[in-house]
Every structure is written in C-alpha cells, then in structure tokens.
C-alpha cells in the first residue's frame, strides 16, 4: 500500500502520522461506548469532541433510543447507557446499576395561529391537558381567553400535533400533563408513546415542527432547542407557583434547582411541574446509567472522567446547543453519589 | 472409417455426454439453490416475525387482530387500525394508479409518435428509481399544503354526494389517508405502467392490424385485442405495484398523520402497519415490541392473502374463457 505513494515527503508525513497515532492510542487512549437517548446525542457528541481533543480518549455514543440504551447497558455491551426516563431504584438494585442526570433541556408548547405573535400566548397545565384530551377544541375557548385577555384569538378549530415515534420528549410532556390533570392521568397516562385522544402524529421534533408550520391553528410540543432553531412560535406557561414564565436557560435552571433532588433516591425524579417561582414546568433531563461494579474498570474510569469534564468544562458547549448545564448543587450531589455508590 | 479411429471418437462422445450430464446436474442444483434461497428467506422472515410476536399473539390471540385499541401505557395492543390504514391507502393508490398507468402504457405503445416513446419510457423508469424518502418529503412539504388548500372545496362538493360523501368530509389538514394514497399512487405508477408497456408491445402486430382492417377504433383494438392477450401480465404488474404500496414505509409515515383511528373519512389521519413499526420500534420494549413484530408478521399475511386473491381472480377469468 505504501509503495503507491511516490513522493518521499508525503511518505514521511504519513509515517509520522501513523507512528503518532499508533503510539498515542496504544499508550493511553481508550475508546468507551455509550448508547441510548437521542435527546442528549447532540450535546454528548460535542462534549466527546472536546474531550478527545483534551485527553485523546474517544466516546462513541449511539443514539438508538432510551429503551435500547437501557437494554444495552443491562446486557453490558456498552460502558454507559443514557435514558430519558429514570429507572426505579429497585430495578437499578436488581441489576447493580446506578444512574445520574447529565444535562437539562426544556420542552415547549409550540403553536401556529395567525395574528398571535410567538411568545404572546400563555397556557397553563390544565388547559394544555384539555386541549390534548380534545376537550378544548377552538382557540377562543373561555379557558384560553381567560389566560390571554389581551390577545385576539380566532374561533378556529385547534389541530393537535403530537410525536408519532416513541420519545423521551413525549414521556416528559405526558408526565407533566398527568401531574396537572387527573383526567389525563386516568385516561391516558404517561409514556414514551401513549394512546393520544386527539390529533395527528409527526415523526421526531422535525416532523412535529413541520406539521405545526404547515397546519394553521395547530399546537404541538417540541424541544426548546428545536423551536429556537426553526423559529417556531412557542407559548409561555403558568407554572405550579402560578407565575407566567418564559422558556429559557434561567427558567430551566430554576426548575432543576427547585426540584426535590435531595429526597430522590438514585435521582429518580422528573422535573416536570417543579415548584420554584420561576421554574419552567416542562423541564427535562436524561440519565446516565452505569454498573456500580464496573465490567471494564479502565473504561468506566474514563467514563466518569468524561462526565466530570462535561459538568465542569462542558457547560459552554451545552449552552451553545441550548441545553442547560446542571446547577452546582446537583453536580455536587452527583459527585457524592459517585463516591458512595460506585466502586471506582 | 477405421475401427481404430472410430473407437476413440465414440469414447469421446460418451465422455462428452457424461460431462454434459454432470454439468446439467450441477446447473440444475445451482438453479434449485437459487430458488430455495428465496423460499428460505421468505420462510425465515415470516417465522422470525411470528416468533418475535409470540408474546402478544399468545396473550391476545385473535383479539389482537380485531381490537382497535393501541395503548402502550396500559400495554394493550390491537392491529385493526394499522391493517385498515394499510389496506385503505393501498386501495386508493390502486384506484388512481391503474387507470393512469393503463393510459400511459397505451399512449406509449399505440398512439405516441416513435421519437417520443423512448424518452417518455425512460422518464417513467427514472420515476421508479426515486427513493421513497424523497416522495415523503415532497408529500409533506409540497403536496400536503396543496391538499389542505383543496380539501375545503372537497368538503363542500364531494362531501355532499350521498353514500360516498362521508369519505370526503373532514378537517382540511392536508394529511391523512387520501393524501397518503395519492402519494403512493405516484410511487407505484412507474412500476405498473412500465410492466404494462412492455407487455402491450408483445402483442403481435398482425392481430392488431387485422382488427384495424375490420374497422375497429383504437379503443376497440385495445379493449378487445391487446388487453385480453396480455391480461395475466397486466394483472401481475398491478399486483407488483400493490405489493409495493402495502409495504411502503417512509413516504406514508410523512403524510399519513400517524394516529390510531378508524374513521369513515379519507381526510382524517390514520396509520399503517409499516409506519407504526417505523415510528415506535426504537423505544418499544417488552409486549410493545412484540406487538410491533407481530404487526410485521400480519403484513406478510395481508400481502399473502392479496396475492392469493389475485391468483384466484386470474384462474376465474381463464375458466370463463373456457381455457
């Protein structure tokens, strides 16, 4: 193969590159693997690029979906799994697994109503649940008008858009609706895919936002980062404390701060409907799942180092993708969890 | 000829014929293997989907077929909505695509000037080569908004026709069974029309010319001579298209609306077997996954039944003609 390269200088360069990569890799670099949630995929790839530059260790993350991530870590085929829904402490104990949050994101109700500016609409939990239950069918329903006295709302029919694929976004959204609406909880419940009482399903964030953009008088829900990138009008929400909040870094972080992490064993807590005065009610995170007694000690050590790096140096990268880094208090709690629960 | 020289010749011939026989045998075995591979692949796929879906099939049995509920939260699954959606969209596609394909094929073989036949035929074959995701994107971004703009008109006109009016009443979303059916029709058009064109060309010219000589119009020639001559191949082509329509995934997922509904209206969103699988397989675990794999098996069954009906139809037609 090398004989085909004529120029001696190129050959030299190639030899140096080869030698460097061989020695570099065999000396200390480790390739660790992770799989799961597609929600964290963008930020993990950005972190892993920065991490590889710094340490030479590569993180190979495959976004195959939370269910797949859980299955793979249980089977021990990856070094860490990532899931949009936490495992129950008893399930974790059964497999000798531990879990901790990695990054925060928000889910926003997005709408397309002629004459209503993005951000001008205010909704609350029960109204949103009733819209998704198919009970509120027009935009000028008294419940919506009451929340938006100064907005001129048309009498048009509401078209509800939801995700058609199983997703962590749907899971957090339906969890929020279950928390605020007993009727939603009893009729539909929460899950990555549910039996939607109304509306049409779009595949992925891109499918939902395409439908919202095309169908007049529609409402849907997408990840905040996605709504920002695609210029979709999102609504403000009245949170559990009764304050009207806007989706942004501050309100997501407020939700993470005020959620009751201290009493959540194995961080088994969803941040939806968080109590804080400024908290965004549909704030979500995803969880990293790893074996407490590592199957591959060297790889697991690197994985911990990677997440340590992500919590400290990865914050800017997360913000640039419109994710929110975990608040300091939570990071401290996670690091305490590592020392107490994991054999490193 | 000398006996001495004839003997090696005979031996040679014998040798040759034995070698030929051996080659024939090898060739036959090889061909049989090829055929068996297809059979093994088909059987393997059918059995493994059946095996993967055993949990839900054992649990619910026939109820799985006839229940329209699809509730992953409570782990209750029924295949009726996806089956109905698959059959409806494919039927719409056939109703639209068959007459148009017939027209295209006729035009290209009987009416079009010679210089036009080649380029148009190539264009149709190129249509068949477009990946289905492109059809899906076209359907979602261009065709669905167009449908949304004409659906109010459909509601007011077609929606008032007795009996079939209900099919065309619904919210003007632009997405739904009708849109999916039309996109499918465009997708299967090239398959059906190129098969039809090929077989129409095999009709002997003297048959057609005799008919023209007797004073037939072009339509009469086509209907009474060309079509009966090529009927089984034409039906084969139609079912090739139908097979594609039944299994089509991406393009349908984009425009069908993905909702587990069974409604009388074609303007409402629905779901299909393949799009349900594509949508939910990623995050499905346990019984949910089993239900999706069982759906895959049902697609086999549905396709098999449709092909069976086609065979029976052909046989019936042949019997009627007294063949």
TrEMBL record, chain B:
Transmembrane segments: 25-51, 79-108, 120-144, 173-192, 233-256, 291-314
Keyword match Transport: yes
CDD domains given in the database record: TM_PBP2
Keywords, comma-separated and alphabetical: Cell inner membrane, Cell membrane, Membrane, Phosphate transport, Transmembrane, Transmembrane helix, Transport
Domain ABC transmembrane type-1: 83-310
Main location (coarse class): membrane
Its job: Part of the binding-protein-dependent transport system for phosphate; probably responsible for the translocation of the substrate across the membrane.
Record protein name field: Phosphate transport system permease protein
Species of provenance: Dyella acidiphila
